[in-house]
């Protein structure tokens, strides 16, 4: 079992502590949080070992799980990597692209593994269909959330849209050619609602919308490709795959047949996956353990986390 320590015991940090404590892949050594009163409360309530010195915790473990505010990600990760520790780091990877690139280079230099917490990669609605997404040419995403003061210190692009940016970059095997975007600040000092259009070198176009001032929550993505349409509902954990094939000469009474202007007939059929319930955060943490133990590239590498952040800032730059 890998010895693991958690940096940060806020809302998400407590979730990580609970899941790591129950995981068969890790031995939870303890946690560090600079807010002493909160740390003591967490230690007293759940019985986790509290370290009042960050270096002492890092020295005692094999893996450092960084669930601090984003502003602290770089310093915490740099310290852990230079001590030869593997790092799991929540999204976004760092505050700046330059910091992310430094961490990406540091893990290579010190021979350790790093994974970024883009949890939607492990959403069962996505994992159930990702193998069916082949060369999509148009993608549309909507990630809408009711207002919550937590997270409004950063633009909605870094708070919400970055999830969809990462998903899109993971399925479009091409470089981003151009970015167009607009954003509006309604309540916060930074944009609360944003729309972005990404154009890729292979011709794919992705249209992303994110809002944290919506009256309802929504997390949907739609992927359009030759002879197929794939819908993923990250919130409801549902997926739908609609495919088309050449129509049979003698279709059945219940076959769905379409005919285009040229007279070509296609049959519509559904190829919906079976969705297996899971805990996506636990799965991402345990996938990292497997990557370390098997000497494999993590599911969401620091390089991928860096590229998602780079595109996010290209979108934000359009707001200026």
Automatic annotation (TrEMBL):
Pfam families: GFO_IDH_MocA, GFO_IDH_MocA_C3
Domain of life: Bacteria
Limits of the Gfo/Idh/MocA-like oxidoreductase N-terminal domain: 2-118
InterPro entries per record: Gfo/Idh/MocA-like_OxRdtase_N, Gfo/Idh/MocA_Oxidoreductases, GFO_IDH_MocA-like_dom, NAD(P)-bd_dom_sf
SUPFAM superfamilies reported for this sequence: Glyceraldehyde-3-phosphate dehydrogenase-like, C-terminal domain (SSF55347), NAD(P)-binding Rossmann-fold domains (SSF51735)
Signal peptide: none
Name of protein: Gfo/Idh/MocA family oxidoreductase
């Amino acid at each position: 079992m890998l010895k693991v320590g958690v940096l940060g015991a806020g809302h998400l940090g407590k979730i990580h502590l609970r899941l790591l404590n129950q995981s068969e892949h890790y031995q939870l050594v303890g946690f560090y949080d600079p807010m002493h009163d909160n740390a003591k409360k967490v230690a007293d309530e759940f019985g986790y070992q509290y370290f009042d010195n960050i270096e002492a915790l890092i020295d005692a473990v094999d893996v450092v799980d960084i669930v601090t505010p984003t502003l602290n990600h770089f310093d915490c990760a740099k310290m852990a990597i230079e001590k030869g520790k593997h790092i799991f780091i929540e999204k976004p990877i760092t505050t700046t692209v330059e910091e992310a690139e430094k961490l990406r280079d540091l893990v290579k230099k010190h021979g350790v593994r790093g994974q970024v917490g883009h949890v939607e990669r492990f959403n069962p609605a996505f994992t159930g269909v990702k193998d069916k997404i082949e060369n999509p040419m148009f993608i549309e995403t909507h990630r809408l959330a009711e207002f919550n003061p937590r997270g409004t210190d950063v633009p909605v692009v870094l708070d919400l849209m970055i999830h969809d940016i990462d998903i899109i970059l993971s399925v479009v095997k091409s470089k981003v050619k151009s970015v167009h975007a607009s954003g509006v600040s309604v309540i916060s000092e930074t944009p609360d609602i944003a729309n972005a259009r990404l154009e890729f070198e292979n011709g794919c176009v992705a249209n992303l919308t994110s809002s944290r001032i919506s009256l309802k929550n929504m997390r949907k993505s739609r992927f359009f490709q030759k002879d197929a349409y794939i819908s993923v509902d990250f919130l409801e954990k549902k997926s739908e795959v609609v495919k088309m094939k050449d129509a049979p000469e003698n279709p059945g009474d219940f076959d769905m047949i379409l005919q285009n202007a040229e007279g070509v007939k296609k049959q519509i059929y559904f190829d919906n996956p079976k969705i297996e319930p899971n805990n996506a955060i636990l799965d991402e943490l345990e996938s990292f353990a497997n990557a370390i133990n098997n000497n494999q590239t993590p599911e969401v590498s620091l390089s991928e986390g860096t590229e998602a952040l780079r595109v996010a800032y290209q979108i934000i730059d359009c707001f200026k």
